[in-house]
Amino acid sequence: MLYSNELLAEVGRWVFVSMLGTPQYTRDRCITGIHGLDEITRGGIPYGATVLVGGTCGSGKTTLTMEFLVHGAQMGEACAYFAATEPSVKLLENIRQYTFFDMEMVDKGLINVFDMDVVYSWLGLTKATFDRDDINSLVKAITDIVNTIGVTRLVIDSVTTLCYKIPNDQLIRDFLFTLGKTLATQGCTSFLVAEITSAGAKAHWSSFGVEEAILDGIMVLGDIDRMGHLLRFLQVVKMRGTDHSRAKYAIELTPMGVMMTPMLKWGVDSD
Length: 271
Ligand SMILES: Nc1ncnc2c1ncn2[C@@H]1O[C@H](COP(=O)(O)OP(=O)(O)O)[C@@H](O)[C@H]1O
Ligand SMILES: [Mg+2]
Prior knowledge:
about 270 residues, alpha/beta, Rossmann fold, two-stranded antiparallel ribbon, about 25% strand, binds adenosine-5'-diphosphate, binds magnesium ion
């Protein structure tokens, strides 16, 4: 009996799909709770990942990373936010205006906000630039906090400000690698904020370029000019340990948190 080409093609497709099979092992996920983001990463960020959140000024990095902690706190997780670009008092004054943020989470010790300047003072790090010993004591201080409080979600906003104090690329790389490795060992999923001046195709996703290869994930936030109106977008560029969409999504910062919609058909370039 002769088989039609279509039937053979169908059988071939079936054999191919069967060979792919269902995955033997799927990493546990940290559900961010951010609208759309867990769908983009097919179920959340792999536990213990260190994700760079690179974005231009005003693109929503602080709002998104704070919302990430809020959802953790709602599930009873201990969270830590290291504020390096603005004083924590000012940060909380701004963020508490959002409906999604509840100051009680701070009062109850679920969201712990640390001023990076205060951490530097504890450690006696008053120099303008850090050497290897300074970096080691900084990583130790952060991991001690994570251990003591039992932190499972962490944000450093921003690592760019911190990395300006580190004199060369190799030391920045060592700092981020050691920090990421230690946090992963503690089971802590971390967002490291990076400030970038442009989120365009040719841009680095981070401020120094050296962070990109080391970290587990890269998420970019930026603006797209659409008829004189700046729209915000989010794009997951890399996420080790999971399949994910690499499309750009339009985001809005609403009182309830970040809201996402696909922008596939728009076909516009970011600046
Ligand atoms: N209460 C609010 N509701 C909605 N949008 C806000 C609110 N407060 C500030 N914003 C918007 O958020 C922007 C700042 O977002 P932010 O997360 O701090 O950005 P980034 O950290 O990337 O600089 C502001 O420029 C403003 O457009
Ligand atoms: Mg910010």
